[in-house]
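#random but structural
TW: two for the price of one
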Amino acid sequence: MDFRTPLLGTAAVAVATFAPAHANAASLFKADIVPLNEAFGSTASGSAQITLDQPSETLRTLRVQIDVTGLQDLSDFGGIHVAHIHGQFSGNASRPLFDQGNGPFFTGAGGTAVESVLPTLADDIDGDGFLNFIEGRPAYGPVVLNLTSEQLPASPSGVPPLAQFLELASNGTIDPAALFPAGDTFSLDTTYQFDLTDPDQARQFNNLTALDQREIVIHGLTVPASISDPIDDLVTANGSGAPLGIPVGDGQVFRITAPVAAGNLQAVEDEATSVPEPLAMSLIGGVVLAIGLKTTQRHTV
């Protein structure tokens, strides 16, 4: 009897069984958080991880974990560091600067995502050496999710998530100091849920889910009044509704909108669920050898 065919067939099964099992690369995203505005004292850096899950056909979850150190301690005067997922949309970066925080992507089913990129001093339009939120937005786009320690309701159609946050804070519905840190670290581990049967939650999720085209940005820094005051003049003149600077003494002004650190999200493989290739090949070799020995024994009996 020719034992080669059963041997090859069994070996093929062994290969299929023990070949490396790779996780879904779209389920895990990581970002290296690097400082922005270092010339103004920002030394913030760290990492972020987002896990995208699908508990049911109509439910999606994002677990966001952030560990950033080196932030300016703002607790002496009640300042806070806010963080968001930002995302750019097709055509938005070419619109007028103060129009880029809102658009058709916050209506209907959402917008068409394009790559968000880290801003640099090349984006410093006024040449003052400080990258403000207006100058950074064409690179990383508007806020698509407030990274509060507790999830906020999805904003209604036509209302940007950041505008909703500011409205809830101004009318006393939320306490920003209870949702964001004030010290020199930013540690977050919060899971955000999205019910896809709800149009507002579905739109927010759709605007988020090209996660490998999204960016995490952390804000909050004191800067000289000579830098801050012209920004306030520009914000006021354009009626954007963005928070103005808060004088804190010694010629310094706290800007909650000041970008201090950011990182692009990238899809990665979940190594915990993968079989390392050398181990898999060893398993294959061992199985094939065992099959060969057993077949030889049968042949000689």
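TW: number two ↓
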Amino acid sequence: APETAVIVAAVMSAVASATGAALAVRDDDAYRSRLHRLALRRGLPTACSTTPGTAVIQLDGVGHDVLRDAVDRGLMPTVARWLGAGPDPAAAPPTHRLDPWRTDWSSQTGASQLAILHGTNHDVPAFRWYEKDTGEVMVCNRPSSAVELQRRAVARTGHAGLLADDGASRGNLFSGGAGESALVLTVSARRGPGTRSRAGYFAYFCDPANAVRTALSFVAEAGREIGQSVRARLRKQRPRVSRGGLYPLIRAFATVVERDVVVAAVMGDLLAGRSAVYADLVAYDEVAHHSGPRSRDAAKVLRRLDRSLALIENVAEHAPRPYRIVVLSDHGQSPGETFHARYGLTLGDLVRAGCGLPVPRRAERTRSG
């Protein structure tokens, strides 16, 4: 029957697409070409302004010294080439320069990104704090808190944000006033049809090839984390934090799913000729918090992030307008033990004990108890 033939053809097409993606899961050229074709099918412009657009890629948590060391060790050949530090500097003159900068009192993503995207981080003293006038605990990565912080910043500056003029915000805490957003925390907090920041997932995973590529990488990354965690425990590496429970899945989401969806969205933005794009890649920050900023685990993540930068650079060459690619970080990291790992009890337990309040029996049995 004609209906059966159509169904069989559709299934065979999906299987062929998925199989091709599985075989080319690490083939960046094939991946880039596929995304390019999909973008062109959506009717993106073939001509655009000759004024250069700006693509800002935030490598979350990557400090200046860490990036410099990664370039020197050959972990990030794309960045090295941009800085004129490649294998043949004469053949590839520098197109970028590397400058350090210092955060203010609050060295964390919420404060830095709010200032970059909205021009101020006034009254953001930390990642988490208690506001006496409202009696609320503000947490930068809590949707309701992020919405309030963005509202205050817009009210203080009188401007919607850095991306208000034909911009796109991808994977950020704040929208920057962008008309196009995906995986943005302040957008995810909105209520009502068509307002949630899920379009990035739907647009990416509706293609079987993308779904298979990311699914296989997700499983591999979760397995990689389990192996690295066991090795760190056997070697008794210190400092060390808990990496059990759901963390392997959380890490795989941050280093694979979020990265793939955000990079694909940025590629689409470049091919659409948007004037400004700001995207946050959180992979390194997530791994460095648990494995250490200069660990082998974090170094491998930097290598994969460099491949993402290469993909974005290659797509920018086919965009309908020239682009300037800016790579920045919101803060750095330094290794250190948690209070609990160092003293055997939490800071909360210590405060309770100092106030004469009861503490858990596990805290009483510690050397500090």
